[in-house]
Specification:
The chain is of the alpha/beta class and 337 residues long. The chain is 41% helix and 18% strand. The strands form 4 sheets. Strands 3-2-1-4-5-6-11 form a 7-stranded parallel beta sheet, with helices on both faces. It has a 3-stranded mixed beta sheet with strand order 12-9-14. Strands 7-10 form a two-stranded parallel ribbon. Helix 2 (39-48) links the parallel strand 2 and strand 3 (53-56). Helix 1 runs parallel beside helix 2. The radius of gyration is 19 Å and the shape is globular. The model has no long low-confidence stretch (mean pLDDT 97). It binds nicotinamide-adenine-dinucleotide (NAD) and uridine-5'-diphosphate. Uridine-5'-diphosphate binds next to helix 7 and strand 8. Nicotinamide-adenine-dinucleotide is lined by residues 6-7, 9-13, 30-36, 58-60, 80-84, 99, 103, 122, 124, 177, 180.
Length: 337
């Protein structure tokens, strides 16, 4: 297949690109480097030994997208492009709505004009908000999120569903990711956040490399086995493989389908900290701090729909995730700079 990856230079997009190239698909990347670097593209070429087309453009720019669709016979799109920092989205919500919603609408318009029917969308477990129960299943209500970022995912999902209802040829897979961590086993690509990381694993990695003095563990009085929050961490390479399955599914079906991509296993913050120290034989200074606003005690997936519809299950475990995250960080202390 010829697959257009919006945001393909980013963390999840770059890993997915490698999986798709390895499977023999042709890839076109469009990215505006708002949260990534051109070096990511060199690394993808280096790891895969294959080339691909690249456009530096904004996925919300109708003229640019029209040109890209006119110049390429696209079979499927994977729409990763989006701003993703939950906290930042509360400070600059309009930028999040403009970027994340405009790119979704622009893509759907370009698809309609050029007769492209298949798209896979990067949604998030954040659409479930505060879960009524765990594990989370796709039929649980998804309209209670607490951040503008989360709302862009819920609203995009709704836009895709409405577009499907109006166009019976359209096929949309809404992939709800849980907590992607880890990196490609080569250590050549990985998560490269700007500034001080917000997320757990990049923060741990930067403490381990000595860039940050210690990790703050946000709360140990939650109703969980060790009192720290529980999440469904999933290796980014497993996630990337899920996308390869999702494009096949999109090509063979019609309508909109939401599918969780998680392992189904919940690990606490301290599980991750302890595993990171053990697997990598490294000390990790940390201290218990107060709860972070908006955190839910427990969030993990029921991944059975992905198994049934996509034939996909996560294969990598917590040790792989901790080892590969550290391998990436220690080999690239300044990220891709
Ligand atoms: P990322 O920031 O590393 O990658 C996103 C890429 O999109 C970046 O390369 C950025 O430059 C690009 N981009 C952003 N807006 C663009 C636009 N308008 N036009 C062109 N390019 C644009 O993020 P990621 O972690 O790889 O996430 C990919 C997608 O998955 C995002 O939509 C994100 O919201 C979603 N998601 C991520 C997580 C996570 O924890 N990483 C969890 C759930 C969902
Ligand atoms: N967390 C933490 N310290 C940090 C960053 C995160 O204790 O410096 C905790 C956070 O409270 C949550 C878990 O780690 O319970 C995962 O947070 P992350 O931001 O990575 O993902 P989220 O589940 O919030 O999307």
């Amino acid at each position: 297949m010829k697959v257009l990856l919006t945001g393909g230079a980013g963390y999840i997009g770059s890993h997915t690109c490698i999986e798709l190239l390895a499977l023999g698909h042709d890839v076109i990347i469009v990215d505006n480097f708002s949260n990534s670097k051109p070096e990511a593209l060199n690394r993808i070429r280096e790891i895969s030994g294959r080339d691909f087309k690249f456009y530096e453009a904004d996925a919300a720019d109708p003229e640019a997208m029209d040109r890209i669709f006119a110049e390429n016979e696209i079979d499927c799109i994977i729409h990763f492009a989006g701003l993703k920092a939950v906290g930042e989205s509360c400070h600059i919500p309009l930028r999040y709505y403009r970027n994340n919603l405009d790119s979704t609408i622009t893509l759907l318009e370009a698809m309609e004009k050029h007769g492209v029917n298949n798209i896979v969308f990067s949604s998030s477990a954040t659409v479930y908000g505060v879960p009524e129960r765990v594990p989370l299943t796709e039929d649980m209500p998804a309209y209670k999120t607490s951040s503008p970022y989360g709302w862009t995912k819920i609203m995009s999902e709704q836009i895709f569903r409405d577009a499907c209802a109006a166009n019976p040829n359209l096929s949309v897979v809404l992939l709800r990711y849980f907590n992607p961590i880890g990196a490609h086993e080569s250590g050549r690509i990985g998560e490269d956040p700007n500034g001080i990381p917000n997320n757990l694993m990049p923060y741990i990695s930067q403490v381990a490399i000595g860039k940050l003095p210690k990790l703050g563990v946000f709360g140990n009085d939650y109703p969980t086995p060790d009192g720290t929050c529980v999440r469904d961490y999933i290796h980014v390479v497993d996630l990337a493989k899920g996308h390869a399955k999702a494009i096949e599914y999109a090509a063979a079906h019609k309508g909109a389908e939401a599918i969780n991509l998680g392992t189904g296993i919940g690990y606490s913050v301290l599980d991750i900290v302890n595993s990171f120290m053990k697997v990598n034989d490294i000390d990790l200074p940390y201290e218990i701090q107060g709860r972070r606003d908006g955190d839910v005690p427990e969030c993990y997936a029921d991944p059975s729909k992905a198994r049934e519809l996509l034939g996909w299950v996560a294969e990598k475990g917590i040790e792989d995730m901790c080892r590969d995250s550290w391998n990436w960080q220690k080999n690239n202390p300044k990220g891709l700079d």
